[in-house]
Each structure stands twice: as C-alpha cells, then as structure tokens.
DNA sequence: GCGACAG
DNA sequence: ATCTTGTCGC
C-alpha cells in the first residue's frame, strides 16, 4: 500500500494541509482500467452514533465472491475520528477506519466500492479516490447525492438509464438509475478504472436494488458493529 | 460576497 | 451519518 499520504495522519492536518494532500492524491489517481481478474468484490461503509460527530466511527469492508455471489464475513474496525465532518474532506474522517477494517481481511478483494464520491469532488479527491490511492486498489465511488457538478439532461425511468454529471466542463460521474424506485445513484471513478467500467460494475451489482450489493452488506455490517459496541459498553456489562 | 455542501 | 412504526404496493 501507498504509505506516502498516511504519514500526514499521524497528526490531524489543518484544512490547508488537507487540501494540499488532496491535490497530491488527485494527481496520483488513475482513470484508466487497471484491474486483473475480479473474483472478489467488497463494499465499504461507515456507521456512527446519531448527532455525535466526535464519537467513534465504525467501518466495515464486506466482500463477496464473484460471480458466485457468495457472501464472506465482513471485517470491521472502530476509530475515533481526528477530523470533523467538513463537506469535501470526508476522506480524512472516514478513511482511517476503513483502512483499518481492510487490514483485517485475510483474502483481499480485487475491487472495492466505497460509499461516497470518487473523482466527482471539487478537487477530484473524494473518499473513494483517497482510499483507492492509499491502498493502490481499483475503487468505485457510489454516492446517493451530489457534492458538485450537475446532471446533464434527464436520467430516464428504467434501470440502466443514465446521464452525465459535469463539473467545470469535465464529466466527473454518471447519474445511474439502478432501481425503478428511488432516485439515481452517482457513480464515479475511485482509482485504477474507467468511468464506463465503474458504471458497468455498479449496475451489475445492483440487480434491481438502488445500491450495489457490497455497499448494502457493508452498510449492514457497519451498523451491526456500532450496535454491538453500544450494547457491550452497557453499564451492566462493564 | 453569497450560497451550496458526500457521509 | 442517524431516530422510528407502520403502511402501501408489487
């Protein structure tokens, strides 16, 4: 893994320092396909207590085998965030916990879907790109709403319908309809694959649901980890 | 300067 | 992100 930018996390960076790091990571981000045989795919997501932005972050990385779709046990990790929630800097808050969860996986996935933006970010450095570059792994950003840019045209009502998302003249994401119900999701490059490949995988893994299976599994696993931590710290339990 | 703003 | 129950529809 690429440790270069991890050094910056020994101390919480200032916003200015974080911005500089984002530019470096964006420069290292690869937007062409560089993935091998994809036999294991994982989703990454985090969960935290309501209205407690300084409380622990519970991260989960949930793998499945492809194309068998066999679900493997999710790895989880809990970290106290050293960074507040600031739109545009989500990676500095969530990536450390996700990377810790990733370390817990014995068999590493070939592809990682991350809940959040990839290159569809003001500095082309969303959390999916940040995690992808640090791990040097192919990643896809799966977001439920937009951070920047706008949809060009209409998305169409059927699964597979799509429209480009453009920011400052650049196509940074695809608004993709994955389910007849609910709004489109926003698929972007994380690292080491093309936008078209990212959209292909997002659609293939959604199977009529709004979110790709690995993202749903990671969401569930992160929530389970948070609830387990809450119940194990009950007064009666010690 | 003002508004918008992933999770 | 998170709280929460039922309810409507395929």
From TrEMBL:
Mg(2+) binds at residues 45, 115. GO terms for molecular function: deoxyribonuclease V activity; magnesium ion binding; RNA endonuclease activity producing 5'-phosphomonoesters, hydrolytic mechanism; single-stranded RNA binding. It catalyses: Endonucleolytic cleavage at apurinic or apyrimidinic sites to products with a 5'-phosphate. The keyword DNA repair applies. Its cofactor is Mg(2+). The gene is nfi. It comes from Sphingomonas oleivorans. The record marks 85 as: Interaction with target DNA. DNA repair enzyme involved in the repair of deaminated bases. Selectively cleaves double-stranded DNA at the second phosphodiester bond 3' to a deoxyinosine leaving behind the intact lesion on the nicked DNA. The keyword DNA damage applies. InterPro entries: Endonuclease-V. Keywords: Cytoplasm, DNA damage, DNA repair, Endonuclease, Hydrolase, Magnesium, Metal-binding, Nuclease. Its EC number is 3.1.21.7. One of its GO terms (biological process) is DNA repair. One of its GO terms (cellular component) is cytoplasm. Belongs to the endonuclease V family. This is Endonuclease V. PANTHER family: ENDONUCLEASE V. CDD domains: Endonuclease_V (cd06559). It is found in: Cytoplasm.
